[in-house]
Amino acid sequence: MSPKPTGSGQGRTAVSSPDNGPCYKAGAFASYIKSRPEFEHVRTRHRSPGSNGVIERWYEAIKYEHLYLHEIDDGPALAEHVLDYQRIYNDERPHETIDWALPRDRYTTTPA
């Protein structure tokens, strides 16, 4: 999910853009999203895997570069591993797609 400013300036809206699995097409899900003004649900285009390519690459990286290398006993331990890898992914791991820069540096640098 990527935050974006809301019209009121009071907070942020979490934008959900999952695959179009049946659980995201259900009426109960639509009602839940509608009842929560801090959420916005955006559907991806049918048969366009590039729409979710960034998050799919994240899932691949966290699984193969971190989670599968550790024995994780429970949910809280999993959450700690995810937070740890998120820090590594953004602050220590260079990314080929952004010319081997760190995402943190690319995000915080003003373009020339």
Give a summary of the structure in a few sentences.
The protein has helices at 22-25, 27-35, 53-65, 75-91, 103-108; strands at 2-5, 12-16, 39-41.
Would you kindly provide a written description of the structure presented here, covering whatever features stand out?
The chain has 112 residues and is mainly alpha-helical. Helix content is 44%, strand content 11%. The protein has two domains: 2-43; 51-108, no CATH class. The chain has five helices and three strands. It has a three-stranded mixed sheet, with no helix packed on it. The longest helix has 17 residues, at 75-91. It is globular and about 40 Å long.
Element layout with pairings:
Elements lengths: L1 E4 L6 E5 L5 H4 L1 H9 L3 E3 L11 H13 L9 H17 L11 H6 L4
Helix fraction by DSSP (H/I, runs of at least 4): 40-55%
How do the helices and strands follow one another from N- to C-terminus?
Answer: EEHHEHHH
Characterize the main sheet.
3 strands, mixed
What would you call the shape? globular
Radius of gyration, rounded? 17 Å
Q: How are strands sequenced across the largest beta sheet?
A: 1-2-3
Distance between the termini: 27 Å
State mean pLDDT (0 to 100 scale). 82
In the predicted model, the low-confidence regions spanning at least 5 consecutive residues are 1-9
Oligomer: single chain
Instruction: Indicate the structural class.
Output: mainly alpha
- Determine the number of helices (DSSP H or I, runs of at least 4 residues): 5
Number of strands: 3
Strand content: 5-15%
How many domains? The number is 2
